[in-house]
Specification:
It is a single chain. The longest helix is centred in the last third of the chain and has 13 residues. Helix 5 packs parallel to helix 6 and helix 5 crosses helix 11. By secondary structure, this protein is of the alpha/beta class. Strand 13, helix 7 and strand 14 form a beta-alpha-beta unit. Helix content is 29%, strand content 26%. The protein has twelve helices and 19 strands. Strands 4, 6, 7, 10, 11, 18 and 19 form a seven-stranded mixed beta sheet that branches. The protein has a six-stranded parallel beta sheet with strand order 14-13-12-15-16-17, sandwiched between helices. The radius of gyration is 20 Å and the shape is globular.
């Protein structure tokens, strides 16, 4: 079967090969025919080594498709079912799950170290234990979440990561208050979803911050009340908040420099929500006096900061009701053979989300 493979960490191109085989099928597993997958910035971060991932590997974790085989002991899923791929399934048994923080379950991460593909030259890993830049993938049954028949595969794929992450950051993690002021730094697919979440929660001002003009223009269509380049953020802070700072600031880039800017843009007593996934050696500096004196809340948001199955259902309900726009988030579509074009679209910032059609 065909799949897009990164041979070594640090390479910036994927090679589409036709000699890849999905492996590991057996009890507790399902095999999925991937129909659509989104390109998320985390895929690029794994390719360049910012996020740890063994190589060679197949990127992709934001996918949807059909079940083509079910292993022994699997219940609730049948051949032919339409599913989205959950890259962070909850085991239901660990301390995090029992505390109601299933987004912190480590069971899914453990899968990342086990290869689930092979080629004549050896084993191949799937990113985050999945790997959806391929025609077929074998995953734990908990990674396959059934979707209703009226949800297209491309929409389901978005819900599998970017939409759930961004909406959840605003709704679950921050619990944005009605009438508040918000700034969102980084307006790709996740940032746009955070903007839509803040709008749903009733924020009065939502300032989108991005260096790419097309993304700023898009942010206005999705609910931002103003969109500025990074060098104009301080001016927006002065105009909108009289210099005090925003009630909520979302950092959706994953870099210490933007996190520091986000901290400085948050008012005293306000909330900084860290959504971007950054590198382990990129350290954010804060001094002990400002931590005490400013009393700003710093809230990391992992996969939307809530139960992912509930978050999926909520996103589908909001989409059906026309309260969130998911179709327009897909600005580009490419076949798997042109996956490197999708990478260029992300790196240049011209795409909010590129859908890879398989």
């Amino acid at each position: 079967m065909r799949a897009a493979v990164l041979h070594e960490i640090g390479q910036d191109k994927l090679e589409v090969l036709d000699d890849v085989e999905a492996m590991g099928f057996g009890p507790g597993k399902v095999k999925i025919r991937v129909r659509a997958t989104g390109l998320c910035h985390s895929d690029v971060s794994a390719m360049n080594g910012v996020l740890p991932q063994p190589a060679p590997f197949i990127p992709g974790h934001e996918g949807a498709g059909e079940i083509i085989d079910v292993g022994d002991g699997v219940s609730g899923i049948s051949q032919g079912d339409r599913v989205l791929v959950c890259w962070l399934p909850a085991c239901g048994q660990c301390p995090a799950c029992k505390r109601g923080q299933s987004q912190l379950c480590l069971a899914g991460f453990m899968n990342a170290g086990t290869p689930n593909f092979k080629r004549p030259g050896g084993d191949v890993f799937g990113f985050a234990g999945t790997g959806t830049f391929t025609e077929e993938v074998v995953v734990d049954a908990g990674c396959a979440v059934p979707i209703p028949d009226d949800v297209p595969f491309d929409i389901a794929a978005l819900i599998g990561c970017g939409v759930t992450t961004g909406l959840g950051a605003a709704i679950n993690t921050a619990n944005v208050a009605a009438g508040s002021s918000v700034a969102v730094i980084g307006c790709g697919g996740v940032g746009i979803s955070a903007i839509q979440g803040a709008r749903l929660k009733g924020a009065a001002q939502i300032v989108a911050v991005d260096p790419v003009a097309s993304r700023r223009e898009a942010a206005l269509r999705f609910g931002a009340t103003e969109a500025v380049a990074p060098d104009a953020l301080e001016d927006a802070k002065q105009r909108i908040t009289a210099g005090e700072g925003f009630d909520y600031v979302f950092e959706v880039v994953g870099k210490s420099a933007t996190a520091r800017t986000a901290y400085e843009t948050t008012r005293r007593g306000g909330t900084l929500v860290v959504v971007g996934a950054g590198a382990m050696d990129d350290n954010l500096q804060l001094n002990m006096f400002e931590l005490f004196f400013d009393e700003k809340k710093i809230l990391p948001s992992m996969y939307g900061g809530g139960d992912v199955l509930q978050s999926y259902g909520r996103a589908i309900a909001l989409w059906r009701a026309g309260r969130i726009d998911l179709e327009s988030m897909i600005t580009h579509r490419v076949p798997l053979a042109e996956i490197n074009e999708a990478l260029d679209q992300m790196r240049t910032g011209v795409a909010l989300r590129t859908c890879i059609e398989i």
